Amino acid sequence: MAHDRPHLPLTGACRCGQVRLRITAQPILTMACHCTGCQKMTAGPYSLSVAVPAAGFTVAEGEPVIGGLHGDMLHHFCCPHCLSWMFTRIEGLPDMVNVRATMLDDLTWYRPFIETYTCEKLAFAETGAAHSYERFPPMADFERLIGAYHAAR
Questions:
Q1: How far is the C-alpha of 67 from the C-alpha of 126, rounded, in Å?
Q2: In angstroms, what CA-CA distances link 40 with 22, 35, 44, 69, 85?
Q3: pTM for the complete prediction?
Q4: For 9-80, where are the alpha helices, taking DSSP H only?
Q5: What is the reported pLDDT for 3?
Q6: Cα(85)–Cα(14) distance, rounded to whole angstroms?
Q7: What confidence tens digit (pLDDT) does each residue in 47-85 have?
Q8: Which of 53, 78, 101, 116 is the most exposed place for a label (fewest CB within 10 A)?
Q9: What are phi and psi of 32, to 5 degrees?
Q10: 136 closest CA partner among 17, 37, 7
Q11: Among candidates 99, 90, 101, which has minimal Cα distance to 136?
Q12: What Rg, from alpha-carbon coordinates, does the chain have?
């Protein structure tokens, strides 16, 4: 399954447009997560995301706030006005930002390459992802998955 490369820069915004994003680096990997946390955060069957290098990600307008669990490891950033879940930063992965793909202005290139937490997947939810994992892929698999993602594009 071939995946198109997006035309950079990618831009995006929350639902109300008060917080805008800009991505100037090619994605590392695209994903769909079926965990119940993502289901609740998105009010849908899964969340769609694109991992991008932190150096290629900026908040172009507005000041997002932390929402979701307010945990020590995951920091979910949301618009302070419409509360759209826009991106996640994960402690221990300072070189990556996980952007909610549906915040992007152009999704014509987007397809989830991996899907995670299929153990919590709703029976009808299909993503078309090339790789499926019952939970998260083992850390040792990520280098291979990233290489496969880039080879498929």
A1: 27
A2: 26, 9, 7, 11, 11
A3: 0.92
A4: 36-42
A5: 56
A6: 8
A7: 999 999 999 999 999 999 999 888 888 899 999 999 999
A8: 53
A9: -125, 135
A10: 37
A11: 90
A12: 15
| Identity at 124, one-letter amino acid code | F
Amino acid present at 88: T
Please choose, from the candidates 57, 78, 80, 56, the residue with its C-alpha nearest in 3D space to the C-alpha of residue 67. 78
Q: Regarding the domain delimited by 10-151, which CATH topology (the fold level of the hierarchy) does it fall under? A: glutathione-dependent formaldehyde- activating enzyme (gfa) (3.90.1590)
Long-range contacts of 9-14 (CB under 8 A, 24+ apart): 10/104, 10/105, 10/106, 11/60, 11/104, 11/105, 11/106, 12/86, 12/99, 12/103, 12/104, 12/105, 13/103, 13/105, 14/62, 14/78, 14/79, 14/81, 14/82, 14/84, 14/86, 14/103
Neighbours of 118 (CB within 10 A): 18
Alpha carbons 106 and 86: distance in angstroms, whole number: 15
Fill in the amino acid letter for 10.
L
Q: How many residues does the chain have?
A: 153
Letter string b/e over residues 74-86, b meaning 16 or more CB atoms within 10 A of that residue's CB: ebbbbbeeeebbb
For residue 21 the two structure tokens come to 């994003």
